[in-house]
Amino acid sequence: MAHQAKLTPEQFEELGKELDALRKRVIDDLGEEDRKYIYDVVKWQRGFEVAGRGLMYAGFFPPAWLAGVAALSLSKILDNMEIGHNVMHGQYDWMRDPHLNSRMFEWDTVAPAENWKHSHNYIHHTFTNILGKDRDIGYGVLRMDPEQKWNPYYLGNPVYAFLLMVFFQWGVMLHDLEADRLLSGERKWSETKGVRGRMWHKGLKQTLKDYVLFPALSGPMFFSTLAGNVTANFVRNVWAFAIIFCGHFPTGVESFTEEETENETRGQWYYRQMLGSANITGSPLFHILSGNLSHQIEHHLFPDLPARRYPQIAPEIRAICEKYGLPYNTGGLTKQLTSVAKKIFKLALPGKKQPSTPPSGTVEVLRPAA
Question: Chain-wide mean pLDDT for the chain?
Answer without folding.
Answer: 91
